[in-house]
Amino acid sequence: MSLEPIEPDTALELYLADKDNELAEASLEAHEYRLGHFVRWCDHQDIENLNNLSGRQLQRYRVWRRDEGDLSPVSEKTQMDTLRVFIRWLETVDGVEQDLSQKVLSPDITPEQNSRDVMLDTDRAAKVLAHLEKYHYASIEHVTIALMWHTMMRVGAVHALDLKDYHPSEQYVEVRHRPEAGTPIKNQGDGERLVALSNDLCKLLDDWIDNQRRNMTDDNDRSPLLTTAQGRPCKTTLRAYVYRWTQPCRYDGECPHDRDPDECEATDRDHLSKCPSSVSPHAIRRGSITHSLNSDMPDKVVSDRANVSQEVIDTHYDRRTERERMEQRRDYLDDL
C-alpha cells in the first residue's frame, strides 16, 4: 500500500469535516478537543507526516497525555478510544499503516470506575445558591446555576433556551432542538420537552429578565434567555460560571486545600477547573438527579424531566446508598 503524506493538523481538519454529518455537535467538539492534544504532541515531537507513526510513538503519547493532563483512568480511556477511532479513519484514507489502530492501547476500567461519582451534593448546592442569592442575586451566574440545579438540564439545553421558551404564567420552559440556528441539544428531537418550574425559580427568572438581562440577539437573530454583552453566552462560558462558583473559597471564604486564593492559579478564568473542589455542569446534573431521587420524586418523573433513561440513571447518576434505597422502599410498605 502506498501512503500519502499528511500533516497532523490537516488530518484532524479532514477527519472533523468527514464526521460533521455523523456526530452531534457536542460529540464533534469533544473529538476536536481530545484530538487537539494529539496534534499538539505531534508538534512537540516534530512529527510532520503521520505516515511513519508507530505503535511505540502512540504509547509514548498515551503516557505523555496521562501525565500532562493528570488523567483519571476513565478520562485516559476516553481520550485513547477517541484516538483509536481517529487512527482507524486515517487507515481508510491511506494516512497511516493498516491496522495501526490496533496498537492504540487504553486502560481497562471496572464498571465502578466508569460510573463517575463526582457530583455537587445537596448541602454544597444549597451553600452555592444561598451565596449567589445574597451577593449576586439574579446575576447571569445565579440564574445559570439555579436553572441547572432545579431542572437537571444539561449545559447544552440551558445554552439553547430563548426568551420565548420561558412561559412565566404557566411556569415552564421549552427545551427545543434547533441545529439550523446554532443550538442543537443532546438526543436531538428526542431531547425536546417541557420542563416545569417552581415558584421560586420563576421569580428569579422574572427578576433576571426585568432587571439584569441585556436585550441582545445572537448571530441567528434570536433572543436568548441568557445574554451577555456579546449576545448568547457560549457553553464554555456557562461551564466557567459553574467551575468558579463551586470553588469553596467563593461561597465559604475558606480553601479546604490550604491554598492562598490570592496566589492560587485556579482563581484565574483560564484555570478555574484546576480547583480540586470545583465541579462541572454535569456534576450539578448528577447531584440534582440524586437529590430528586432522595426526595422521593418517582424514578419515571426524574427520567422524563432529566431526559435520561432509567438504565442510565441507575448506572451513572443515582448515588443513593443501598440502605437509602431500602429505607425509601420501606415507606411504601404501609400502603400495601
Structure in words:
This is Site-specific integrase. GO terms for molecular function: DNA binding. Residues 263-283 are annotated as: Disordered. Pfam families: Phage_int_SAM_1, Phage_integrase. With 336 residues, the protein is an all-alpha fold. The protein has two domains: 8-114, DNA polymerase, domain 1 (Orthogonal Bundle), CATH 1.10.150.130; 122-282, hpI Integrase, Chain A (Orthogonal Bundle). 51% of the residues lie in helices and 3% in strands. A three-stranded antiparallel β-sheet has the order 1-2-3. Strand 1 (166-167) and strand 2 (172-175) form a beta hairpin. Helix 7 packs across helix 12 (281-294). The N and C termini lie far apart (71 Å).
Summarize the topology.
Elements: H1 8-19, H2 25-44, H3 55-69, H4 73-92, H5 111-114, H6 122-135, H7 140-151, H8 155-160, E1 166-167, E2 172-175, E3 193-196, H9 199-212, H10 235-245, H11 248-251, H12 281-294, H13 299-306, H14 310-317, H15 322-330
Antiparallel strand pairs: 1-2, 2-3
Summarize this entry quickly.
Residues 6-91 form the Core-binding (CB) domain. It holds the Pfam family Phage_integrase. With 336 residues, the chain is mostly helical.
Which features characterize this protein?
single chain; 336 residues; DNA polymerase, domain 1; hpI Integrase, Chain A; 15 helices; 3 strands; 3% strand; DNA integration; Integrase_catalytic
